[in-house]
Amino acid sequence: MSYHITLSKSEPSSGITPQEWRDFLASRPELEVVEENAHFISAVLLRDSNLILHYSAESASVFTKNPDGPQIIEYMVSIAPHFDGVVTGDEGETFATETDLGTQNDWNSQKNARNSRITEEKPWWKLELSRGKRMILGLLLGLLIVIIKEIFFTQ
After folding, report:
1. Collapsed DSSP state (helix, strand, coil) of residue 15
2. In what order do the strands lie in the sheet with 94-95?
3. Which strand (E) or helix (H) includes residue 22?
4. Which residue in 5, 27, 69, 116 has its CB near the most CB atoms, within 10 A?
């Protein structure tokens, strides 16, 4: 599951056009186009592969996925006025000021808290099995039922 931060125009009726985004990229030396196709234009910020902005022709907006810190969001907030846009998160929150972004320490502590919850040891009855293991378990249980039926209920 991924989390998106999106830069879109304030007016829902109009969006950022592909040509607007290409012109903007050409005017910004800190952005480098790394991939372009009919639906997306991806650009990396400051040659850091963790700071990628994607333009979507379908939604006529610019977004980033799973940001590791406030730097990419801060950049999106700084360029939003150029497009008369607004920066929002998946949960509807708006990013407009530095206090909305948090600090890198805030982001790191949230990430550490999430990782510690993920790596906690679960009791065996709460473990989630992969699809393949669930299928094997189901087949074994079915086979056990057939064997019990044959032993006890056939004459």
Report:
1. coil
2. 31-36, 40-45, 52-56, 61-65, 4-9, 85-89, 94-95
3. helix 18-27
4. 5
CB 85 within 8 A of CB 10: yes
Cα dihedral 92, 118, 98, 20, rounded to 10, equals: -60
What are 14-53's pLDDT values in tens digits?
889 999 999 999 999 999 999 999 889 999 988 888 889 9
Ordered by start, the domain boundaries in the chain are 4-119, 124-153
* Alpha carbons 86 and 97: distance in angstroms, whole number: 11
Whole-angstrom Cα distance, residue 70 to residue 53?
14
pTM (predicted TM-score): 0.65
CA distance 110 to 115: 9
Q: In which element (H, E) is residue 128 found? A: none
Structure tokens at 18: 């592909």
Query: Are 4 and 64 contacting, i.e. CB atoms less than 8 angstroms apart?
Result: yes
